[in-house]
Each structure stands twice: as structure tokens, then as C-alpha cells.
Design brief:
mainly alpha; 2 domains; 4 strands
Amino acid sequence: MDSSVVVAALLEFDALHGRAFALWNAIKAGKHIPVYTDCVASETISVAARRFEERGRGKEIGSFLGRYLEHIPIADIVWVLQDTQRLYPDILDLVRSSRGALNFNDALIALVCRESGIPAIASFDADFDQLPWLRRLAQPSDL
């Protein structure tokens, strides 16, 4: 799972909320096992906090975090940031070869997917489309 889907699914005011929630529910209903990494968790929480703050709705971050933990309990998070040092040269190569289309976190997520045999990522970021080892799921019909 990429933060673009998680953020949109959990933020009702996000323009992609309906699409994201439908994709997320289709993944779960299809008996697929969503993988949530710690770098996606940090990105999701950071983006949500910024969006609430930008809208002057900072007091709502607590209820957002409650919904977040309901959907993604701590036990469901796969901790990959410890691999960052080992993967660092490959991350930089991937950012470079994508001409910056993939940011640091996206490159890390893609490499972890490749190493772990995860064939697909639920994401609205088309930048993942350039990776031959990772299929992007952007809507339920992509399952």
C-alpha cells in the first residue's frame, strides 16, 4: 500500500477519497493481504497532519490517528526502515534512473517490494508504472 491511497481513503475531504476507499475495500474483499511499511506510515501521518493544518483543522488530527490505528494496527506494520542503509545505493540509483519521478520513500518501497516478492502496489502515483517488477493498482478493476 502506498500513502497516496491510505491518505485519500482515510481523509474524507480528499478529492480521491471515494476512489481510494473503493480500492482499499476491494483489496481486502479480494482476500489480498495489504502490506503497510513504516515509511508509508510516516508519510501518511505527515501528509494528513499537513493537510489538517493547512485547512485550520489541526484539532482533528487525533480522530484521524484513531481511524488510522483502527485500519492499520501497529502489529500490521512491516518495519523496513532498518534496511535503508543497506539499500541506500540502490535507492539513489532508482531515484536517479527515474529522473526524480520516484522520491526516496517510493524508491525504498519499490525495492522492498521487489526483495519481498510483492508484485503490486496500491497507489495513485503513476511513477511506479516505470518499474517492470511492480504492477500499480489504481482502481478495483486493476485487481
